[in-house]
Task: structure prediction
Amino acid sequence: MMEDELVKIWQSSPNTEVIKFEKSRLMVDVQSGLSRIEMAIKARDRHELMACLAIIPAFGITACFIPFLLSKIACILIVAWSIFVLIRLKQAKKNKPCSLSASYRDYLLQSKVFLQAQRQMLNTVLWWYILPFLVGCNLFLLGFVMNSGKIAVLLKAEVVFVIISVIIYYLNKHVVRTMLDPKLEQIDAVLQAIE
Result:
């Protein structure tokens, strides 16, 4: 009787050790992946901050001195859009997980909320980032075109704006598909493993 129990314990222990090893390896993978994603988000936010800090004064000053009314309105819209982008990025960052001082499960749940907010922001980039950018830039150039009659300039610039917009859109979709979605799946797997 006692020998049977010892045999059962002995037979089950390697599987338990393998499961513990796999679980700890998965936790390490998730943590390193989260660190890489957080660094990428910080870099993106830094670039956006620098761009907005250049755009706001440049278009603010241009709005004061440009003689074309439509272009003045566009400058004000571009400044407002830049401020909105900064606010949007700050809101998405407020869900950033705190350090590992909380339990690992709480850290994973916070990380999941943070990544879901980033995912939602990137999936809607067309509406809050690209379209306002296109409207502002087109109005700005339209003010010049209406006063100079050079429609070829507007058409060439429109092609450039559309190409930039398409690149921004697909880069954001690529980040969601290749970075955020797999990491969210990994977090879910770890949460299931530790429960």
Summary: Residues 15-19 have pLDDT under 50 and may be disordered.
